[in-house]
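writing this on my phone so excuse typos. first protein, seq and then structure
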Amino acid sequence: MAYQEVTTTSYGKRVGNSFKGIGGGILLFVVATILLWWNEGRAVKTDKMLNEAEKVCVDMENPNKADPALDGELVCATALATTEDSLIDSRFGFGATAISLQRMVEYYQWVEHAESKTEDKLGGKEVTTTTYTYTKEWVPYPVQSSEFKDPEYQNKNMVLTTVDSEEQWAENVSFGAYKLNESLIRGISSREPVQLAIDESILKSLNDGISRVHRKDSLGYVHQSGNVLYIGRVPSSPEVGDVRVTWEKVVPAKVTIISQVDGNSFKPFKAKNGKTFQTLVMGKKDAAEIFESEHSANKTLMWILRILGTILAIAGLKGIFGFLETLLKVVPFLANILGWGVGVVCTVVGIVWSLIVIAIAWLFYRPVLGIALLVLAGALIWFFAFKGKDKIVKKAEA
């Protein structure tokens, strides 16, 4: 059954909090402005860097044979990434010859979920009802149930044992006659399950430790199957406290890289504007495909950050002017009308401000688009000044 907690905030405290929110709103608005400005510069610089890299990039036709003439060149090459390094999981006493060995841990725990609803009362008070529900889930860390709100679920969590997640990477990964640097190595994603071969003495020691600490009977608590080590009574029927450990490895695979040759290895390419670039993709790809994908990713990130910056600007303005709505909370329906109006104004001003910041930033790089954005911002200002106010008046009259 759900557990509810009801809290009441007085009108005076709400007004005080709204005035305190002005500082946070100003900070948020400044952060949004900086983010929008920085993002435009980042996008243009990245675009120029990719264009420069694409012009100088050459194909390495045979990575299996070192070519001194390519030293210092930005190359696109496809070869098998492989290693002879042995990676050992020291806690469980087994390993694999692989590019990476990864141990992932999950705990079966009670998890608290909270959902809040607020209601304005006549006189300015605010009543918040928070509903807490609890579910059993696999999570990557033990959950402190002592902090749960519902007393019935407090201290219900426990774990049979704790195991740290771990990730190891080979230091020596060959790419034909060359070696990959650390950044390129970590871009390889050819994952496969690791078939476990944990020594029985280690499993017995782990089982005995659980039985001794938790004063359980001598039943087996440790089960290994495939690439999973399950710590609990019955793997098919998990109980709170059970632990699931999964191993994967990154195996040799054909990859394509774009990077600058540095002796028998590689390093990032540095463009004239200071931006660096190197990449690794799985399988065989040509340079044109990779650069097209990088340009697309740059544009996608640019729009994500533009939208985020605009949302932050609007939120900052609402934080600055939110006190106006709070002052009228003594009469909720009046506050709702004013809040609607403040929300509209903050949204329009936030969008307009974001367009102005973007336009000014782009004027330094691409004047035509910058001027177009300024015209659009001006059109929005005109629309709001001569059209938007009529809607607000009609809303207030209604």
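second protein below, same order as before
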Amino acid sequence: MNKSRRAFLHQAGAALAAAPVVVPRRAWGANDRLAYAVIGTGGRGRWLSRTFQELGAQCVALCDVYEPNLELARKESPAGVKTYIDYREMLAQPGIDFVVIATPDHHHRPNLLAALEAGKDVYLEKPLSMSLEESEEMVRAVRKTRQIVQIGMQRRSMPFIWRAKSLIDEGILGKISMVKAKWNWNFNLPLDNSPLPGKLDWERFLGPAPKRPLEPRRFRWWRGFWDYSGGNMTDQGTHLMDVVQWLTSSGPPLAADCAGKIIDAPGAEVPNVFSATFEYPNFLATWTLDYRTSFEYDWSIQFIGDKGAMVLDRHGSRILSDPGPSGTPWAVKEQGELIYREADRDSPARHLQNLLECIRSRKQPNCPIEVAAAAVAGPHMANLAWREGRKVKRAPASS
């Protein structure tokens, strides 16, 4: 084994030791269970509720504007769970320790502010906000309270990514010049506008969004419309750009640009194929998404340095050494030696467990609101760049 490889493996061992200790599931007593309520019982909200129940918490209230979703969630909850159509009425119910918010993006701000006003701890799905201004307001609101708020960016609770962070901090990649984040899904989206089965309170769904007559497709795929979301850019971009900034110890980008297209999704407003570029003080990053292909399926992030490259994806992490210069560019080997590999065996339930532990300890969770605000800042800037056809630069931080 050569000296370089021994050094890399030594660093890998140090990273394993530095990874966070995962607290095992505690033995919950019958009178020691945290009680929670859910706002938004679509597919994601129901998964969160099932998982919190598996971790020992008790669902005591559910709220949704769409009756079929509410009924599905009720069937997956304990007997006696109360159901609501008005989340403010639900928040007045006694005995709720924390609130799970899994509503469309445009409801995140009002839902969070109402939960804080009611004195509840919160698990809020990503992306945090609809705009940079909303992010600032939400951060200020949380910090005026003593509430625990965890944002649903589960990679923050995955040990294999913590170990990757330790390796980069130790210099295993050398100087990073480029980071490439990518997400590919073959996502057929017909934007069905046929009548909805079951009862929907359209006015409550619109909430703070502009008023308009009912369009079922806007409810079925709200992420395709600017009134209710930041589109695919902030949805998946919040996850990946957070990892980019976390592992490089960077704040939000200095500037962003974006090219994108809406392909085979008539009626949608947000691009389902795009490429964004972000400028950081010491490196560039790209964030590309293609929802028209399964080529190189799912998510990945490449960190490229002058000593090696790291790839993170749904399979785990791996590091390849850089083969180095060889006199002429076309004579360089295609890639270096594989020097580190770790499979992703981490459950997303760890992130929910972290919230439960933090509610009890009153320590800050793995993804506090400031992290979420920084993660979505670049995607918000890229959306502005695409919609306005210009490069967007970050405003100086206010004093």
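Confidence is low (pLDDT under 50) at residues 1-30. thats all i got for now
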